[in-house]
Amino acid sequence: MTTAGRSAAETAEMLQLIDTAITETRTAGRPDLAEKLIKCRRQLTTGAWHVLVAGEFKKGKSALINGLLGVPVCGVDPVAFTAVPTSIKHGDKPMAYLMPEAPADAVQLPPPIKIDIRKAAEYARTGLADDGTRLRAIETTLKRELLADGLVLVDTPGLGGGFAAAAATATMRALSLADGVIVVTDASQELTAAEVDFIRHAIDVCPNLIVVLTKTDFYPQWQRILELDRQHLKAAGIQAEIVAVSSVLRELALDTGDPALNAECGFPVLVERLGSRLLADHAAKSVLAAAGVVRNSLRQVAEVLATEHAALTRPEERQATMRKVEASGERAKALSSPSARWLNTITDRFADIQASVDADLTDRSRRLENEVTKRIKEGDPTKEWSEIVPWLQKRTNEEMTDAHTLLIRQINELADDIAALFDATAEQVDAIAKGTDMSVDLKLENLASKKGGKLEVGMHAARGWSLSSSIVTTVLVTTLAPSLLIVLPITAALGSVFAWRAVRSYKTTKVDAARAEALRAAAVYLNQARVDANRASYDLIRHSRGKIRDYYLDQAQELVSAAKHEQEAAMRAVQADAQAAATRGAAAKAELDRVSALLASAERVTQKGRS
């Protein structure tokens, strides 16, 4: 069975398990858990996964997306190039919206502007709304089978000079938040050192990567270029597949309906790789996340049934059971209170991270300024400016990308610490399960933990993933928020502040004057780079802080609800007469057996996914 086939089978199995779990939670009187599972099911079948199409200018990125979708939704022009990112997702009707940039003093983003989707390509090239407002992105919807599984394609502006491009840092930030990336090059020449360098950095932040070689119809020697590109990647230690395609042949194949021509264009291979590589990886993580949701929901049902069964079958322990359940409820309420330690820790630690980021970016900017100052003062900018610019851009991109990576690592570490702190407190809520004999041949000792579990939430929160109460697992259900992705300044052409003409005009004047102008231009560039990095970091921290906080607040509220249901079950057992206790005890045992079997199935899926 192929990877895509296995993913489809595992997804189908999980959907069936979720449906059964929904029935069980409703039968148990837990509509909140049923709703959580319904949301999980919806996420598993329609959850978005974003694939960015990146690369240098005029390599055929927009034409590649048009070829994949079969319609010219992205602008293709022999001279003009894409100015703002365009995202394309599935929708019943073709629609398009312009997303204007917010003014510097704006509190919130301006509302989207609906346009005719046939004009989306034109706006993508100009980057301006009709009133002259700069755009930060364009969002479109199309009814295409390729997008039906939640795929969202994002056409990004081109980069000149690979990782030495002015906008490379912003692109790396976007890639770090994506589920996959397609790096586009063409058959006009073999991969340049700049492109290889860009791919190396891209695969570091987003390992789910495919390289696409375009324009095979225009260059007869494309097969030789393809082999050379493979050798370059191998020599650089980069493990990435290269798929060769022709957008022109694809368009002709779609127009004529010629299957042979369609096979020759290479797009069927690319579509298969999208499914077997990128989508399969996303589906496997989603199934693993859904298994965690099912386990957490069924555990709560099992705990209530086990408590009820113990109270019904051991009357002599009922009063002790009631006391333990009441104590468990009080601890759960304390966990969800505003004074909870884990909640205060989130506030304090994120404040520390913000201060650390500010200091780190300041240090990096100062170090870069010292480096460029030394180089400019020791040389002649009128002769070396064309070398200084890409060097400084590359150094700046390295430092700012490293700072962004460090921030994500800090958020991940914080998330781990919060998970451990929350779990340590939640273990006290688990006193009833540990203090009551539940050895009714059900082997629930490994399934009754109420704690949240280690949560890899940092990066996921950064991506805007849904961290609702429906998720308790080390791999989270993903819902990448497009707004988070597109607000990153992918189109920021920081190189423009270098004042090329101003510096070059000093060729006929004193070198000292040229150096002064070069230093001024470099200082402006570095300051803008630091401001952009600081703004992106602030948005990342604010978004992650809110998501992590809300996730654990939901978890704490679930503990309160679970404790309440246990109290009610124990109370019913205390009030039951002997005959009713015997009848209900047998029924509770049968329900517990059934739920335990479902828990075992969810556990098998989890172990399979982690292996």
From TrEMBL:
Which UniProt keyword terms apply here? Answer: Membrane, Transmembrane, Transmembrane helix
- The record lists the organism as Kibdelosporangium aridum
Q: Name one Pfam family in it.
A: Dynamin_N
- Tell me if Transmembrane helix is a UniProt keyword of this record: yes
User: Which InterPro entries does its entry note?
Assistant: Dynamin_N, P-loop_NTPase, TRAFAC_Dynamin-like_GTPase
Q: Which residues form the Dynamin N-terminal domain?
A: 51-215
Please list every transmembrane segment annotated in the UniProt record, as residue ranges. 480-500
- The name under which this protein is listed is Dynamin family protein
